[in-house]
Amino acid sequence: MTQLTLSARRAALEREWAMWVPGGVGVSGAGVRTEVAQSWSRSLRTVDPGRGHAPVSETDIGPRWAESALRGPVTELKEQLHSVAYDAGYVAAVTDASGTILWSYGGPVMRRRAEQVNFAPGGRWDEAHMGTNALSLALRTDQPHTVFSAEHLVAALHGWVCYCAPIRAADGTLLGVLDLSTTWQRSHPLAMATVRTLTSAIESKLPAAAPEPRGMRLTSLGTGRLMRDGQQIRLRPRHLEILTLLALDDDGYSHERLHYAVYGDRAVGASTLKSEMSYLRRATGGDITSRVYRFTTPLSCDAVDVLRAIERGDLDTAVRLYHGPLLPDSETPGITAWRDYLEVAMRNAVLNSPDANHALTYGDRAPDDIAVHEHALTLLPARDARRAVATARLHSALRA
C-alpha cells in the first residue's frame, strides 16, 4: 500500500472517528469495518477516547511474568522477537489472557513512543480499559486482528498501526496475545504474516496438553459420553439421559418426577427406574442420593456450562462450548424439554448479539437455521472473506 493510499485511508478514518466517537452515540460504522464500529460502541461505555495512556495493573507484573507459561517460549525466541522489533521499527508485546502486558521490546525510539501510552509491562489493553485496539479485539474474538490509525478508539493511538494474534495452549486455552505495533506510515501487509509465524513458534514451544482432569465429566451436547479420570465409562443411552437430567437440575428429582421425565406416560413399572438408578450409582461411585435423586457433588457437564455462560452474559464461552443439540437422538420427555430450552436460549442470544463471530460459530452447529446465517451476513462487512462461509450455509439451509 502506497504512502498516498495510507494517508487517504487515515484521513477517512479520522473523519469517521471525529463524527461519531467523541459524542459516544450513534456509531454508524459506515466508514469503518463492522468489528471496529461494534467495538467502538462497546468501548465507549467504559473508556474516554481522550485518555492519554493505558491504565496500570494493580498487581506486580514481575511474579505474573515469572509464573506465566509464555515466559519460557518467549525467552527462547527472544533473539527473533528482538530482531523483528528492532530492525523493522516495531514494538513487540506479549499479554496475559486479561490483556495486561507482561513483556515488551523495541528499539530506543519506538520504546519511548510506546512508553508514552503505557504500551509496556503493566499496561492494561483489554477493551474495557483501553477501548478498540488489536490486542483487545484478538482477546475478545480469539482471532488475529489489525487496527490502523483512527480505528483505535483512543485518539492518542491514532499514530499507530497494530498487528496481533492470540496465543493458545495445546488444549486450546487462550493464554494471551502477541502484538507488533509501529507508526501508521510503516503499515505493511506482511506484518500480520510475521505475527502469525511468531505466534506459531511460541505455541510450538509450549508444554503438551495437560492430562485429562480427574473426576467425572458428562458430555451431552451433540453426543453423549461420560468420562471418569480420563477414561470413558460405557453407558446405555438411557443412563446418559438420566445423568443429564440430574446434572441440569440442582434441586434433584423425586422418584415420580424423574419417572415421568424419563418415560413420560408409558406404562413402565417403578422398579425399572430403581434398577437404572442402582446401576448408575455403581457406575458413578455411589454419588447419587436415594430419597431425592441428586448428585452429592455437582456433576461437571457441558450443557450446564453453556447455560451458566448464557446466564452471566458470556456468549463467547457459550458458543465455544455449544457443540450441538442436547442428546440429539433422545426422545425422552425431560431431555426434549431441556433441548428446546437450550436451543431457544442460545439462538436468541446469538440473534441479539452484534458480534458476527457468535453467529458464525453457532451457525456451524445449526446448519438449517436460515435466520442465523442471514444475521451473520448482516454483521459481516462486504469484503470479509467469511461472508463466503455464511453465504454457502444460507444457500444450503434454503435448499433444505
Count of separate structural domains = 2
User: What is the CATH architecture annotation of the largest domain?
Assistant: 2-Layer Sandwich
Task: Give the helix level as a range of percent.
Answer: 40-55%
> Which spans of ≥5 residues are poorly predicted at pLDDT below 50?
none
Identify the overall geometry: elongated
- The radius of gyration is 25 Å
The SSE order reads HHHHHEEHHHEEEHEEEHHHEHHHHHH
Secondary structure: number of strands:
9
The description of the largest β-sheet is: 5 strands, antiparallel
- State mean pLDDT (0 to 100 scale): 90
Question: What is the name of the CATH superfamily of the largest domain?
Answer: GAF domain
For this structure, the quaternary state is single chain
| Tally of helical runs | 18
CATH fold-level assignment of the largest domain: Beta-Lactamase
| Beta-strand share of residues | 5-15%
* Class computed from helices, strands and strand pairing: alpha+beta
* Lateral strand order in the biggest sheet: 2-1-5-4-3
Protein name: Transcriptional regulator
InterPro entries: GAF-like_dom_sf, Sig_transdc_resp-reg_C-effctor, WH-like_DNA-bd_sf
GO biological process, one term: regulation of DNA-templated transcription
Organism: Nocardia alba
